[in-house]
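Translate sequence into structure tokens.
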Amino acid sequence: MITPTHESTVLKRPAPLSRVALSFLPAFLIMLAPWGNLWQSLRPDFMLLLLLYWTVREPTLIRGRTAFFLGLLADVADSTTFGLHALGYTLAHFLAGYYRTRIQSFYILHQAFHILLLLLLNQVITALAGRLLMYPWPTLMWWLQSPLTAIFWVLLPTWLERSSDPGTTTSRRA
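Result follows.
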């Protein structure tokens, strides 16, 4: 009998809404954690990363209003002007949905590059909107947040796609 040597990822089951919703809780808690000034500017934007991941993976579960609401939560967590993150998150969500099939057609490292561009675009929009509100231009350290966040894109499917079905465990042969 021929058995596959790796788990097939061609056809995946849809993720349950509860898994999608609960995955945002740790990201929000990380945003609320007390970071120092240096680490605050380098902190990866896990909320946006998860938003992009679920937009690409499950586009019917994540809508524009969800992106806007998560952006408002990010504004509250970062104590910034209400709507700055919401604007960037909504635009990044739209573009991730628009380029969804293109992103999915690449291997994970190439996907990370596309996600990096979306993360940088989010930062540019946030910085420009903040500049219109007379905020100072962000420092170089703040711009490193996107590449650090994009690195986690490679690890995200491993963390989120673990099977939670009790009947799908594989047995070891002696």
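Note: The chain has a mean pLDDT of 87.
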